[in-house]
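Exam prep: given the inputs below (a chain plus coenzyme A), describe the expected output before reading on.
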Amino acid sequence: MIRDSHEQDVGAIQAIYAHHVLQGVASFEEVPPDMDEIRRRRRDVLDRGLPHLVVEQDRRVLGFAYAAPYRLRTAYRFTLEDSIYLAPDVLGKGHGRALLRRLVELCSQDGFRQMVAVIGDSGNAASIALHASLGFERVGLLTGVGFKFGGWVDSVLMQRPLGPGNRTLPPPGPNHRTLPDTASPPS
Ligand SMILES: CC(C)(COP(=O)(O)OP(=O)(O)OC[C@H]1O[C@@H](n2cnc3c(N)ncnc32)[C@H](O)[C@@H]1OP(=O)(O)O)[C@@H](O)C(=O)NCCC(=O)NCCS
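Solution:
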């Protein structure tokens, strides 16, 4: 089941994310954020009106995904970046695809126009395949922009349009999606 995350899910989300911070290079963080920080990041996403989802099975949270501003300068306001992490024992079973598909659906319905994935590392076959299977195209490679576990780490950039993408203009006039460029990113 894919659903909105709840405050009570923060412990499970923190544990899943901490695993990937400590064991892999998908995240460029090196010290796992604690529960208070995960709670703050989730609240920041929700305060922006963006989706923060979990996949749940037999009352266990198996993974999470959320959308955040791609960048905070206001002209980026129709572009989002996705984040998605699953528990290590449930990889490759289709949960990632279900979660990301729902995230894309919700963000498209909400009038956003582009979604960007910043994927660590070039060898992250699962994430690259997941995004490709949902219509993301590889648009760039930032070589060696990270350094983790004693080695250089690339960022693979993938992108897909949401809704009409850049084929039409957004509705005219100011709207609530004008994100202040002074706010701190959810990371
Ligand atoms: C990346 C991740 C979210 C994908 O979720 P998942 O549930 O494992 O992937 P799914 O089973 O939904 O598979 C999605 C697609 O990727 C492919 N895939 C999954 N794992 C793969 C692997 N190890 N190698 C190659 N392809 C893989 C599947 O075949 C599927 O493609 P298809 O739809 O064309 O058949 C998950 O593996 C994960 O949490 N990885 C660690 C953290 C991470 O890298 N997060 C992404 C940060 S950018």
